[in-house]
Amino acid sequence: MRPTARASARWAGLATAVVTVLATVASGSLSTGAEAAPTLVPTPAPADAKPVYSDAAALGKLMFFDPSLSASGKMSCASCHSPEHAYGPPNGLAAQLGGADLREQGTRAVPSLRYVLNRTPIWTHAQAASLSERLSETDNAPVGGFGWDGRFNYLHEQATFPLFDPNEMANKDPAALLAKMQSAPYAARFKEVFGQNIFADPTKAFTQAMYAIERFELEDPSFHPYTSKFDYYLDGKVQLTAQELRGKKLFDDPAGGNCASCHIDQPGVNGAHPLFTDFNFQALGVPRNAELKANADPKYFDMGLCGPLRKDQADDKKNCGLFKSVSLRNTATRHVFFHNGRFHTLKDALRFYVQRDTNPQKWYPKDAHGKVDKFNDLPVALRVNVDTTDEPLTRKAGERPIWSERDIDDVAAFLATLSDGYDLKAKQPQ
Ligand code: HEC
Ligand code: HEC
Fold this sequence. Notes:
One of its GO terms (molecular function) is metal ion binding. By secondary structure, the protein is mainly α. It has helices at 3-26, 36-40, 55-64, 77-80, 131-135, 155-158, 160-164, 174-182, 187-194, 202-219, 229-234, 242-252, 346-355, 405-416, 424-427; strands at residues 97-98, 104-105, 281-282, 323-324. It is globular.
């Protein structure tokens, strides 16, 4: 439904690659590899940049890993955003269990915090000025913001959600949180950094605490290591295997997988390594997930942009069912996929894309009349919002899926090159 923004992003990426190739030809250093263009982009490795590390960030780090800041006393930010799992979930649960007794289930899968935090644009959904522009789809697509529904613009705002959400860290109020902070081992340090009397002003203390978490999330290099095989490939330090390259081709092909139109894999204008997301919103029609307790109520629907967690976009029914496109970096290390955690293997997530329309009976249950209840995680009237115009989501029941099982293996192999911690030395031919 939103081809304009994506198409232009895609062309911008291609234009960059073309310019780079031309510049390289001019300088006489063009090599002849088939996939030469990306490897030629001179990339200033962000990981090499001198790290800034503020006192606030150091405190934020202590808070991020501190389970005493929860009602249970056992859950920290890192319980769900595990640093050993690319700051994603440490298990395959569709949604994690939190609350005072660690038995309350959330309603969404935990996203990875790697890479996106300092590059997520502020939420925008600028309305086009004229009605004709609005009708012609040049109306800006919604983009950016934190959360699957983009409802937080700043990390310091976002952090207040898990700290007080009854299904997560479940603190009663800021006063309860500040009381815990005052008896934390880093309380003295907090006073040194923010002022000896900081806790006497609860509003100010709370603001500084959220700011500290934000600084940690923005400044700590562990959130953006750029140590995947794909990063080294972009830097020309390693080649992809024939299978990985084949997977990349399938991923890129606009008439095939078309994945790169939303999960951008071209370096940015300044040579920045790609994050495999365009931060746009889309309704993919992911099947309802019975693993979520909230879904026991047939009237409950998580509709992303139009609620229930997000409140400000509910009036525009076109927003219902749309969720933010996520980064596919480290996706091969996950055991839970999509906003509702419906899939538990990467290959199933890929199969869903290419077989959603060709084999709907495989993904959706039958309704009372024996008809396949396609897009069953949205109320019937809102199912028109589901994307059926972008490849590969355009096919009809009974047609051949755009990818074979072998293709799926190849794309999965390509996506596995996005996992951090590739050992460049061990794999280098001598
Ligand atoms: C119980 C599990 C859990 C805990 C604990 C938790 N989170 Fe999350 N986190 C999630 C889930 C689920 C989402 C997606 C939420 C949504 O879309 O509404 C999320 C989303 C986020 C995002 C947005 C990421 C993006 O790309 O949009 C950030 C940032 C974040 N969490 C930081 C934190 C911080 C900081 C803490 C500790 C104060 C924390 N989380 C504690 C489960 C958790
Ligand atoms: C039209 C834009 C669009 C296209 C095309 C697209 N995606 Fe996505 N992708 C999204 C959005 C939006 C989400 C999150 C949707 C949700 O959870 O409801 C997503 C989620 C995913 C996830 C789950 C990641 C996670 O951490 O949960 C995977 C894996 C994925 N996409 C792979 C692909 C592959 C492979 C292709 C090509 C076959 C593809 N995508 C094509 C927009 C797109």
